[in-house]
């Protein structure tokens, strides 16, 4: 049977033209999972049933989106550029990340998702890259545009990520203004951009726990990026953790 891969979602606030709260994420995540041989299942931000979600799926994707509430990783005040805060989503995804790692459930964390994974396991974030690294590359264009700008990343030799992608140098897209500053065990940093920004993290001894700062789901026409989803699905075939 095809493994079920849960994909976290964002909350869409009511608008005059549709005065009801919705949950959603981009279709690209589901398409990437389907191409990899999995069944995508969207997960609404209901933290009260985090463990029940994990009981119902075989693997997990923490998807991209707005920023994480700064109080979860720093005593500094929120930076003026912090946006899209959603405490309910934060609560769910932190709980999912912690429980998935504890269960050794296959997990792919993308962009915001990588930052959630780092924070959930005791790490910290850079609130706004241009202020912390004045010479940084353009990691998020303003206004945000598609296709996203691209840059290279260097992947650590011997890492799970290098083995999955079969390379140590990779061209990736970029749409984030925050970044991982520090990680705590069992996470390891395994990739950087040329300006030093952390681009990937992993739990090396897990079945598959990898976080990437770029958006591989938007690069589905490039086989190297689709390998992340194939590996997630392959690891999830082993059964529910």
List the helices and strands and how they pair.
Layout (H helix, E strand, L loop, with lengths): L3 E5 L1 E3 L9 E3 L2 H9 L3 E5 L6 H7 L2 E4 L24 H17 L3 E4 L1 H9 L3 E3 L2 H4 L17 E6 L4 H6 L3 E5 L5 E4 L5 E5 L5 E5 L6 E4 L10 H14 L5
Parallel strand pairs: 1-4, 1-5, 5-6, 6-13
Antiparallel strand pairs: 2-3, 7-10, 8-9, 8-11, 11-12, 12-13
Helix pairs in contact: 2-3, 3-4
Q: How would you describe this structure to a colleague?
A:
The protein is α/β, with parallel strands linked by helices and 241 residues long. 27% of the residues lie in helices and 23% in strands. The chain contains seven helices and 13 strands. The protein has a nine-stranded mixed beta sheet, with helices on both faces. Helix 2 (50-56) crosses helix 3 and helix 3 crosses helix 4. The longest helix has 17 residues, at 87-103. The two termini are 16 Å apart.
In short:
The longest helix is centred in the middle third of the chain and has 17 residues, at 87-103.
Helix/sheet category: alpha/beta
Overall pLDDT: 96
The total beta strand count reads 13
Poorly predicted tracts of residues: none
Distance between the termini: 16 Å
Keywords:
single chain; 241 residues; alpha/beta; nine-stranded mixed β-sheet; two-stranded antiparallel sheet; 7 helices; globular
